[in-house]
Description:
By secondary structure, this protein is α/β, with parallel strands linked by helices. The chain is built from 20 helices and 23 strands. A 9-stranded mixed beta sheet has the order 13-12-14-15-23-22-21-18-19, with helices on both faces. Strands 5-2-6-1-7-10-11 form a 7-stranded parallel beta sheet, with helices on both faces.
Amino acid sequence: MKYVLVTGGVVSGLGKGVTASSIGVLLQACGFRVTSIKIDPYLNTDAGTMSPFEHGEVFVLDDGGEVDLDLGNYERFLDTKLTCDNNITTGKIYQFVVEKERRGDYLGKTVQVVPHITDAIQEWIERVAQIPVDGKEGPADVCVIELGGTIGDIESMPFIEALGQFSYRVGPSNFCLVHVSLVPVLSVVGEQKTKPTQHSVRQLRGLGLVPNLLACRSSKELDDNVKGKLAQFCHVPLSNILTLCDVPNIWYIPLLLRDQKAHEAILKILNLQGVATEPNFTEWITRTKVYDTFHESVRIAMVGKYTGLSDAYLSVLKALMHASVAYNHKLIVDWVPAEDLEDDTFKENPDAYKTAWSLLEGANGILVPGGFGDRGVKGKTLAAKYARENSVPFLGICLGMQIAVIEFARSVLGLPNANSTEFDPESGNPCVIFMPEGSKTHMGGTMRLGLRRTYFQVADSKSAKLYGNASFIDERHRHRYEVNPDMISQLETAGLSFVGKDETGRRMEIVELPGHPFFIGAQFHPEFKSRPGKPSPLFSGLIEAACERKLLSKSTGNANSANGIHEPHSPAAKAQNGIGLKPSNGSLNGSSPNGNGIYVDGEI
């Protein structure tokens, strides 16, 4: 087994995950099988209980592992299926060692960070590296390991010590270290500064790890004299100093590495030159370049409560991107803070309220993603109501599906107090309830997690057709509340159709609104299995319907209404003066990730 370790220095957020994924793609293109491991030095056992504000979205694996979002990057780039053990945390390692100590496995010895913790880390890496993740038998050829955090962090010291020992034990021809660092450009003088990287490499060497390659993040390509200075002071060959400059989208990164012959440097260090093939990037190049040729765009309103942090919905954004590429459209995501759609915002901040409703009404499709807690629920409910009443393509994921059911019960069934017991435990009409098998005392790892089977109940439903008329599908889940099975008959009599259920027939998985162009809710998270070139069927359906709506709007000369009539839909605006809002120009006053409502699948 060969190992490639990716570390980071100077600051966090440089793109180690994308760099590690791109190195994996590069090695795959050379004919090697690749697996991945992400090391997160925090004490949490997994990412499941952390807020998206801490580490972005929680990515869910087939086996139910709640892991760091970088594992999502690995799966999407390499088209693999990882396990929860592919994400190592300090919490897992210490729990593993303490359990061994309690069993008496250490035979009375004093249990210490060195050697017991460091040995456990090395054993874990070697064991997980042998697990096949590409659907083939036998272990991979190369394991790419990403060490989270920044060199010098106290919490990562045991891992750095373990990896230093590991590199010595497996030998230099089986271990390659790629250090990702920052080369800032001072705006005052416009000069690329190498000192931060020099200090980072010096610190790395002082901890027992020697970098073989430097991957330097900068806003532009490194000047030759800058590379020369880095080579001289960091003791890295000039040919092994790589530029990771800003690119239009992250699919360019593997090509950027290939053009700088990063694969040749890595293969030479790992002594794999004799068995490697010339990198085949035909499909990857086609996918990367074609996006830049699209002239048509499609607008999707993302209604959530973490709209100021795009990483909170990273997999959803990637799935939308995969689907929009398949339909030859550029993707524009309008970030709509759910709370800004609510009447309270109309009173407190009318401008934010008008902007939010303008974005919603100007979109070709609406997506309400998953989430927890009652903040923004009223706004999400209003978004679902607007989509249902105005034939706007709608996709609700997890909580988004539950919101759609609650809104339908209130508006169509005439049950104004219909709610989820998550938000109102005493609701007289609980449309959504806590799952019987869930735990109310422990939060971590107690949800319905991982790959579960959904059986289609209606063969000619939109969802079944999108999945190729399959009789069942397997998708990943992450929820502790479900649609109340005792209300299904009442809801279906009123017009909702629960077209997908679990094996018992009592747990609702997919809901549709017949007669609507596209109104689908899914209890599972289809975004986690979406891949470039193989988009999620439900996301494909949303984008297709949104593109059709856009064409229809063009033909009628109105951007907001398929029938050419623009009416005010925000409740407070109706109550105040009945005047409709103007179409959106994409501005969200800086609350979108890049300040203009347009999601650029790009910067590392």
